[in-house]
């Protein structure tokens, strides 16, 4: 009876070799995810910094494109990652991604207008978009199938550190220096991460095995960008019927539909939609899409509420966001350990209950909602829910894939998350801007928080108080939309596997050589 090859004899515990690789992957993921949360806290600062008149700040739906453009860029480059990893090797591609991200960060700090900043965020996202899927592929192959849950808990570290330290770091840098430093801080970290990757990652031999799907790329990326641009133009135009809204949105939607139809034709499509034949992957992906759109779109508004309605500085707003990250820090490692033994369909719905409860609680925020008696416990509960949701969903999606499908599967999951985040941020910011326009005193009252000199111009303290009450109502109305999306996510999660799932990671591995059997 032949023995199992050494490279398939994965130890039960997470060993030193995996931890060395995990250090590289986690550092890269921290850079990418931390950058999102750092920028979230800076949106009100961008509204004022790039405004030509302090009394008329840049529209929230406009500055939100600094987030949307980044996540959209991530979604654009993620499909390239599987092909490029085969063509150039994971180590070289990972280092290139770090370099692009670092260069984009440096350029963002030089932006003189909101439009230029959005453009440089696209470049930054091109690098950041490759970090997570490459890291997932590297780590999945290093750890093996029996440690998938604990592996995802390790990859969840950036998800923990981002919400906790991102807002605090961003708030502190803006308060003691300027907004430019939220990007400049990435430069030394990026250089350190690239040097660490050169040392820690083993060189791999690239084996080009398929051609790149150019047609798919030309359909998906511009289609998604046009669709989101059309949606984001609604507040400025004041109506959905405007040509500036309808023309790009409909053209983009048509291109996306054409992309889906076309993707089943080539042998090696940009996104392997055939993987959706796997029921568990399909349910997990749908749940992930709804979750990311609702949670990340809705949570984006919290630091803005704290600064614009409550008058908090960027650093204080960052500290007030900590409970959400602490909650996730508690439940994420627990969920990672449990998902190796308990069906994911019994874990994720429990986490979503916390998120739904928290999001509905946020619909009741006012201009003087107590922090310790209300807002902080709500954010903590939402964090608990997030920690029990995100990584188990990814584990469920990847667990039933074979080794040669992991790269394509992780690509599909990551692009789903990023597209959902882009759509969620765009839609929620549009909804909020639209609601805010319905309250005439809200905008001037928010502006008076930054410039007290205009208080008398808008009717005095009484008018400011009324305006802030109206602004809080606009936030609450918007949180209701996010809460409804969270309920839809819970419905989708009920279809997740409720019985033990067997891993298929080694199904296509040749026992004689220990190498994956590549099926094309």
Write the layout of secondary structure elements.
Elements: H1 16-49, H2 60-63, H3 65-88, H4 90-108, H5 114-143, H6 148-155, H7 157-176, H8 181-184, H9 186-200, H10 214-232, H11 234-237, H12 243-262, H13 279-299, H14 301-308, H15 314-320, H16 322-338, H17 348-362, H18 371-387, H19 390-399, H20 406-437, H21 442-450, H22 461-493
Task: Write out key terms for the chains shown.
mainly alpha; single chain; 520 residues; disordered N terminus; Growth Hormone, Chain: A; disordered C terminus; 22 helices
Describe this protein's structure.
This protein has 520 residues and is mainly α. The protein has two domains: 13-203 and 266-493, Growth Hormone, Chain: A, CATH 1.20.1250.20; 214-265. It contains 22 helices and no strands. The chain has helices spanning 16-49, 60-63, 65-88, 90-108, 114-143, 148-155, 157-176, 181-184, 186-200, 214-232, 234-237, 243-262, 279-299, 301-308, 314-320, 322-338, 348-362, 371-387, 390-399, 406-437, 442-450, 461-493. α3 packs antiparallel against α4 (90-108). The longest helix is centred in the N-terminal third of the chain and has 34 residues, at 16-49. The radius of gyration is 23 Å and the shape is globular. 56% of the residues are buried.
